[in-house]
Amino acid sequence: MQQEDRTSGRPRDVSADAALKSAALGLVRARGYGKVSIAAIVAAAGVARQTLYNRWSSKAELVLDAVFEEVGRYAAAPIGDDGTSAAEQLEAFLVQVFAHLEEDGETLRAIIAAAQEDADFQRLFRERFVLPREAMVTDLLRRAQARGEIGPARDPEMLSAMIHGAFWYRMLNGFALDKGLARAIRDEVFRP
Amino acid sequence: MQQEDRTSGRPRDVSADAALKSAALGLVRARGYGKVSIAAIVAAAGVARQTLYNRWSSKAELVLDAVFEEVGRYAAAPIGDDGTSAAEQLEAFLVQVFAHLEEDGETLRAIIAAAQEDADFQRLFRERFVLPREAMVTDLLRRAQARGEIGPARDPEMLSAMIHGAFWYRMLNGFALDKGLARAIRDEVFRP
DNA sequence: TTGAATAATGGACTGCATTCTATTAATTGC
DNA sequence: GCAATTAATAGAATGCAGTCCATTATTCAA
Asked: Does the UniProt entry include the keyword Transcription (chains A, B) (predicted)?
């Protein structure tokens, strides 16, 4: 996914990008990542197989673009520091994340799986998806620390990894992510 | 992997089990999970492909048996409650786990990936591998709570998920698991 | 000794992601 | 128009997991 305005040669058909992402998004949400073949995606998009591979280097990359650019807006903006307590902000953030994962959790699990088999894709996923979300929570915790809502000895980076880790761990082991979990994480982080 | 002492029929060749596990263990450690094919495993074991599938239903199941039965001993026994503090016991446990994952971490990552694509295998892995290890840490934390090393308001189950989650999350995103991480987790759990 | 039951074997088969190849199409600079 | 360049296309080829099949082997019970 990059271009450099070449001086000659046939130009890319820009509509193919959108057609492929849209086809991938629709099919993956309808049937699930594992049940969607490359053949089905290119057929739905009306392009040749190689056209897909000219743009993305794997099914996982295309789906990461398709599903999580759409959804990239979820939790893409920093967590708003409204008047509420950091505890409430964290819980609200988790509830929002879990709600989105009701729709796309299966896809995220497939993406995480793909990242374990492809180091390049792991890096891409980490930089584009994982670290920004981790940083949002780290920032929230730093603000909380500055305001005294958590003690000065706490480690916001470690805590952020433990928070994300907790629901990754639950999700990857087949447990549902519900409001009870969001509350339990909040309580454990902001304990008395 | 089960038998019921049938009353007739050709008996299983018991040596094939060991040959397959040994071949899988050796090949996966030497080349890495993704680079080992079923064809290579059965060739090394000197049996037919179907003989493998008579015993395990996928490459992931065989490797889970092969690598983590061998290694099942790591952290398979409850964490010894020696005289040391629970904080020290937790850190020692994590250091031991991380040391083993230097050898088999890549395989564990592949197993977790496989579990995301196969619900039956996910259940098997969870029951046989994940939950027992989670319970060990939960027990440790309960003992610590009974002795007052952590406050009565803490939630040992949630904490255990956060501890395991933290290193799963780090591992699955390509970070090394070192002594510093073990120490940081310990400090965050047993904070002042 | 024979039949029923189950295992082992070699090889064929299916479905899939990804790569490769040859051909045709669109563009720029001349 | 023409050469050079890059894209799109259809389809073949590769490599692999998992399944299916026909044949042969081993055991038990009658």
From this structure: yes
**What's the confidence (pLDDT) of residue A6?**
64
Mean pLDDT for A156-165 is 98
Which tens digits make up the pLDDT trace of A48-67? 999 999 999 999 999 999 99
CB proximity list for A67: less than 8 A, separation 6 or greater: A24, A25, A28, A29, A104, A107
Instruction: Please indicate, yes or no, whether residues B52 and B85 belong to a single structural domain of this protein.
Output: no
Closest Cβ–Cβ partner in B34, B117, B166 for A161: B166
Please report, for the domain that includes residue B32, its CATH number.
1.10.10.60
DSSP letters, A51-112, are HHHTT-SSHHHHHHHHHHHHGGGTTTSPPP--SS-HHHHHHHHHHHHHHHHHHHHHHHHHHH
Q: Do B112 and A114 touch (CB under 8 A)?
A: no
What pLDDT does residue B1 have?
40
Smallest CA–C1' separation from A55, nucleotide: D7
- What is the structure's pLDDT at A37? 98
Pair A130, A114 in one domain: yes
Residues 75..94 of A with a Cβ closer than 8 Å to B: which? none
Q: Which domain holds residue B52?
A: 14-59
Run of H or E residues at B66: helix B59-70
Structure tokens given for B42: 């059965």
Q: How many domains does chain B have?
A: 2
